Predict the structure.
Amino acid sequence: MVIGAGPVPSPGCPARTVRGSPDAISAIRGDTGAVTVPAAILVVDDHDGFRAFARTMLEMAGFTVAEAATGAEATEAARIIRPRLVLLDIQLPDVDGFEVARRLAAKEHGPVIVLTSTREASDYGGQIRSSPAAGFLPKDQLSGAAMRRFLAQDPA
Amino acid sequence: MNGRSRTALIAGAVAAVLFQVTVRCTSDPPPPLIDTIVYAAVGLSFLVAGIAAWQRWPASRLGLLFTIVGYAWALPSVGFLPYAIPFTIGNLTASIYSASLGHLALAWPSGRLRSRFERWVVIAVYTWNTGQALVSMLFWNPGTSGCGPGCPANLLLVDGSSSIENAFDAWSVPVSLTISGIVLTLIVRHWRAARGWSRRTMVPLLWISIAVIALSVTQTLAANLNLPLSDLALYGIAPLILLTGPALFVASTLLARTAHGAVGTAIVDLGSEAPPGMLRDALARALGDATLQLAFRLPDGSGYLDTAGQPADPARPGAGRAVTPLAEGGDAVLIHDGGLEHEPQLTRLTAAAASMALEHSRLQAEVRAQLEQVRASRARIVEAGDDARRRLERDLHDGAQQRLVTLSLALGLARNRAEASDPQLQALLESAAKEAREAIAELRELARGIHPAVLTETGLSGAVQALAERSPVATTITAVPPGRFPAPVEATAYFVVSEALANVAKHAVATNAEVSVRELAGRVVVQVSDNGVGGALPDAGSGLRGLADRVAAVGGSLRIDSPPGRGTRLEADIPCP
């Protein structure tokens, strides 16, 4: 199987800036312990239109949202922001979503990972089941409610 | 010599033989009947051999020489006429045939003498033969020796004292033996120099030579040493031995005709796939020429190589060897026994057969090469088609599908945000969102039909799993290798499973299906079986025909086993380089 065999960015490659100012990042970390602090969601997708829309929708649903366009940006942003949930597109320009999910899950207290795609889960065979992601959500079914369901499953 | 003069010559010889029989039978007293029959038979045998020689070797003078021997054999019979002139001529030419036979032997098989020396030898033979007869006639008085009182006169008689005749005869024997020895030595040399075909054609000649020499030596010795042999045995029966030569020649001519057949049979037996080495061996066997070479011009034109890989030079084939070109432009040549040159029909036939066999192998090789090209190009076309479909699916996924998804989400969001006070707007947005969702679903099906993303993403195992899960008939996967295969192999195997499961759902009336994909020694074997009604026909306009084409395009084969009432089993064997 070639799962996870995608190209890994070299350390010298300048990572694109994480969308969201450092202040915003600290504000959305959600590590103050206060339940009222809205959960942070990192939307990882190379499709600008979808990312922008997801931000609008999820912010309207009361989440704080950060964005990343590639696998490398996603791991970097997750390290800084430590989001509660990562909405992770499987098709990314550098490494695929499964590989990103593995990297994120390797960390302690990693985020809830929700894989997404315009394709159906069955198009990825057993890869979704065998990935550390909490689940798969087809893109056209994205909603704040769906995000909350995934967060509710998370024991953390 | 043209056909008409040949006919005249032969007719004349036949007339001479008939004349011989007539005069012998009408003479007084007639010679024993057996004597006449033997003489006629031997004369006729030379004529028949002459006809055979003309048929077999039209360019050779051998036919003429055989006919001349026939004449020379018949001529002395004029001596049976009761007149002095024919009597004298008959006795003078009594053994001229043996000189003609010597000539025939030395000129074998072309009818032409090989060297100036041999021409002198032949002249000497004729001269000695006639001269000896002439000298002996000068001293032979037929009235006193052997012939009796009723005998016609010897017109050449000078001195009838038999002592001179006897003295001359005693002196002439060693000369006769010497000349015979020279002729025999030359014949043996010809025999030793000949190889293969030429040597076999000399067998009748050797017989004639031995027969003539044996006969004349016996006759001479008997006459001079007074051996107790009757004239009937010596001159009546013994000449029968001469018959063996022409008979053998006629037999070998018939055998040569069967060699024509042997060449044809050899080519037929060779089959279509035989390499040139086997062609050479078959021709060598058919022609009885073990030294036969089949040589081909090297592609750079620098020379020739024979089928054993040895260099050959058609310009200098060697002594006693001849060259027959096979292909146009001399790209292939047969180098063979020079004796075959005297068998133009056989040579032509051999060359034609060999050319045809070579042309056949060349065409076969060409067809094979073309077929290989067509196969490769068919595989490339299928692969290019797959690539295009893969790209198209990807483009749909990245473009239209992505936008539609965003649009559908936006519509859903807009509907949620729309003022509850405006139910018309809400309904409108709701129906737009529904349309978008349906468009997404349709586009997804379309994209999957164009190319299964799961195959690109997960390879055969995931894709087969997905097919099994989607199949309306309960489907078990008994085996599928986890690794990845070359894209054309994966695509072909996937389409086999997909089409087979679609057929199971549509036609088989089955409750269970089983799929297995196995990797075996450079092949991927896909099997799909069901417990349905069977009776599937590959040609009945089903997708099976197209599937078989698809499998064949990557060099594989598709087998369908579908006995009525006992389920269908489909097996695709796909080469996996």
User: Anything to note?
Assistant: Chain A is about 35% helix and 15% strand. The longest strand of chain A covers residues 112-117.
